[in-house]
Amino acid sequence: MNMPTNRYCIKLGGESGQGINTLGILLSKAIKSLGYDIFSYREYPSLIKGGVASYQIDFSNKYISSSSQNCNILTILDPEAVHEYLHSLNPNGILLYDDSKVEFSPEEQSWITQNQIHVIYLDSEKIAVEAGGSSIMANIVMTSFLWKLLGFNPNDLANIVKEIFASKGEEIINKNILCLNAGYNTSEFKEEYTQKTYIPNLPSEKKDSKILTGNDAIALGAISAGVRAYYGYPMTPATSIFKYLGNTYKETGILIKQAESEITAVQRWGI
């Protein structure tokens, strides 16, 4: 059984392009809204599309400035991601997955037993469709089920869902909320699951600090240092720096130029 701690870690894993980043941002904002200090890490695979990727969130009632090596809860949205990230779980951790096609190798089954991993299968696509949503909203079902594992109030998660999907329109928001409630209240949830999670106590006062990405910090640092020109080409993971500086150029006066390729961007500096 897990020991009480002032730090907890969850990891999402799935196919690149499957919405892992959106879910990671959703959970990061929701956990932050409760008053916790968070440190999130997004994995950038060197692929345009396909392959597996992860999003890890550490949170604590104290200041943290790094990612944990292993996680307490691993939530998987793609069969291949199970095999990729299974061994990143701490002993006594929880594996939550939603694909019935997952088959564990003998070595994986032995590792799960030895480390007392609690394995939970959830047919999230079925739950989403029965709730009135679409199959793609299975991600929200998984997220809300994870939210219940953490013992948090669904209303706090719903508030962030409404914020993130505000531009999608009322119908999409309402369907996502239906799926959220269905995942949170599903009869598949067992009270014994919560006995394996020891969430840090909330801080005495909620913090007013905001979530800042590493690339936001780089862009702000460039502005503060007096950078006057930025030549770039939108390529992950530097695109968000380009976007931040581009969105603020009227206030900062920085010259922003998009080149035809990353090579041309370097040549603009005469290198």
Overview of the structural elements:
The chain has 271 residues and is an alpha/beta fold. It has two domains: 7-196, Pyruvate-ferredoxin Oxidoreductase, domain 3 (3-Layer(aba) Sandwich); 214-267, no CATH class. 39% of the residues lie in helices and 19% in strands. The protein has helices at residues 20-33, 79-85, 106-114, 124-130, 138-149, 154-164, 170-185, 214-225, 239-247, 249-252, 262-267, and strands at residues 7-15, 37-42, 52-60, 71-76, 89-97, 118-121, 229-232, 255-258. The strands form two sheets. Strands 2-3-1-4-5-6 form a six-stranded mixed sheet. A two-stranded parallel sheet has the order 7-8. Helix 2 links the parallel strand 4 and strand 5. The protein is globular, with a radius of gyration of 20 Å. It starts with 6 loop residues before the first strand and ends with a helix. 31% of the residues are buried. The model has no long low-confidence stretch (mean pLDDT 89).
